[in-house]
Amino acid sequence: MRSKRLMALLITGAACMGMAVSGCGNQINENAVFATLDDTTITMGVANFFAKYEQASYDSYYLAYFGEDMWNNDLYGSGNTMAHDVKEDVAERLQTMYLLKAHMDEYKISISEEEEAKIAKAADDFIAANSADAIKQVGAENKENVMEMLRLYTIQEKMHNRIKEDADVEVTDEEAAQRTFSYVTISTAAHTDEDSNTVEYTEEEKADLKKKAEDIAAAEDFDTAVTDGGYTTSTASYGSAEDEDASFDKAVLEAADALKEGEVSPVIETESAYYVLRLDSEHDEEASASKKESLISEKEEAYYDDIVSGWKEKATWTINEKEWEKVTFEDRFAQIADDTESPSEEITNTEGTEEIIDAAEDTEAADGTEAAETK
User: Fold this and answer.
1) How far is CA 167 from CA 146, 301, 313, 359, in A?
2) Model's pTM, two decimal places?
3) SS3 label, residue 3
């Protein structure tokens, strides 16, 4: 099982430099209502901690690329600021998590005393690893906020796995069947010259490239011809030329469909490259088995999504926008180096806590943070 560390935070917020903590930091009333889900009330303490935890993960990895003002910019092209989009995502995830929590009994899901103890230990480690300023900023002065986040991630993982068990899915051998081919790509797209300028190939240069592709197609030994031409052979598997999710140009897959095992194609020309293919297998058993597993997983995920969507349609979800607007991303977080020697700056999983922390990594692909500080 993979492990995940709650990030450690060291606050030196740009807006707070040289100032007392009371002049900046977290001004959230943690007991105020963030949202209601039917008869369940979610506090601002929990919502603020989720939001600030998410902010720290973004700051740690993207601040260097997008600059100090990234939260005020429309980086996703949605017409909203990045802060708005991330907070909207946090709110939607909280809605989903509390829906899953509300339906735990139906699936006989619970958190054991042992798991609760591990959650408490992980929360204690997180709080101990941080300065008082950082804890105040993220709303972790109340240990329950940290514990609730870990509970919700743990419940989400358990419910996700349990609901998928009820998915009655079937994938036929025909549906999963895969053909495998080797191929060489000779790009005709714009390229960078020795002076780092972007240039287009001339018609004469494209003709030379096509001649190289034709020589490979006519060679007795496909692999040797590719290597001798200075190129690399790659392999790919596919179902049919009609695959909507195929990453190849349809002309490439149509050419592969026309081949028998061991045959080499003529040159296939697309808008950006010349291709030459060799069909290696008309029915690749290993690739087909892998595709079947993938399709089963996709259908199970679709079943899970349908269940959750159905709950959302029936539930009453109301956000207290006035309180939610008070959550801002003014301070900045950065990742603490993994080789730090100070136990107060970095949290590592102690034995037995991995399954609790791991829930966050398994359910939130975008959140890959380990340890962080603010700057």
Assistant:
1) 32, 9, 20, 21
2) 0.77
3) coil
